[in-house]
Amino acid sequence: MEGVPVDPALVDHLVTGTDLTPAEARRVAEDVLAFYAEPVEEFVRRRHAELRTYGVRNAEIFARIAAELGGRLVAAPPLSERQLRRIVYT
Q: What is the SS3 assignment for the chain?
């Protein structure tokens, strides 16, 4: 996940609090930051596809996605079911 800017203080914090080497700590920080940098549209499409593979119905899927979006580290603005459907199906 190169290209994700990582604060050196975060790497130092991880090294100090764990058994990770500086290189491992940087890689972990890059992976976590990349995970949270996923755009809302990509997150919605990915989660919809994941939940569909388990046979979850759309009504439940959109309710779960809306709840998950609100709980992310940098929460997305509240999206209606209609807005979520537009993201998935456009």
A: CCCCCCCHHHHHHHHHHCCCCHHHHHHHHHHHHHHHCCCHHHHHHHHHHHHHHCCCCHHHHHHHHHHHHHHCCCCCCCCCHHHHHHHHHC
* Sign of CA pseudo-dihedral 56, 62, 68, 72: positive
pLDDT band (50, 70, 90) for residue 36? confident
Average pLDDT in the chain: 91
The overall pTM is greater than 0.85: no
